[in-house]
Write a structure and sequence with these properties.
This protein is α+β, with helices and mostly antiparallel strands. 22% of the residues lie in helices and 33% in strands. The termini are far apart.
Length: 125
C-alpha cells in the first residue's frame, strides 16, 4: 500500500505504524517543523511537532469511501492518539498482525517519552 507523504497544513509522513489494506484505515505518525521566537536571544528555533494520522486506504468499488479527502492523512489530537495507541497495543498483545514493527516500536517510544505517560496506564488491565 502506497501512502501520501504529505498532507494539508504542512504535515509530512514520518513513519507508518499500521499500513492497512484496501478498505482499511492506515495509522502513521506525521511531523511538522515550525519556528518559534526566542525573545531573550532575538532569534528563532526549530521545533518538530508529531501527531498521529489516519487515512482510508484505497479499496475496490465494494469498499471504497464516498467521502472526499478520506484518502488523505487526517491529523488527530494527542488524547485520541493515546487512546488509539492503547488499542493498537491491546490488538498486538492478542496476536493481531499486519503492523509495521519498526513503526509500532517508534510509536510506543513516542507515547512513553517526555513524561507523556500516554500508554503507561493501559498495561495494567
Amino acid at each position: 500500500m502506497k501512502h501520501p507523504t504529505r498532507t494539508a497544513g504542512g504535515w509530512k509522513l514520518e513513519y507508518v505504524v499500521y499500513p492497512g489494506s484496501p478498505g482499511e484505515i492506515a495509522v502513521a505518525v506525521l511531523q511538522k517543523e515550525t519556528y518559534v521566537k526566542v525573545p531573550k536571544r532575538r532569534s528563532r528555533r526549530k521545533v518538530t511537532h508529531r501527531m498521529l494520522g489516519l487515512r482510508w486506504c484505497e479499496g475496490s468499488d465494494k469498499v471504497d469511501t464516498w467521502q472526499e479527502g478520506a484518502q488523505d492523512w487526517f491529523v488527530i489530537p494527542f488524547t485520541f492518539a493515546a487512546a488509539i495507541t492503547r488499542s493498537l497495543l491491546q490488538m498486538k498483545a492478542t496476536g493481531f498482525s499486519g503492523f509495521d514493527e519498526a513503526g509500532l516500536r517508534k510509536l510506543i517510544e513516542w507515547m512513553t517519552d517526555y513524561d507523556h505517560h500516554a500508554v503507561d496506564d493501559c498495561l495494567c488491565y
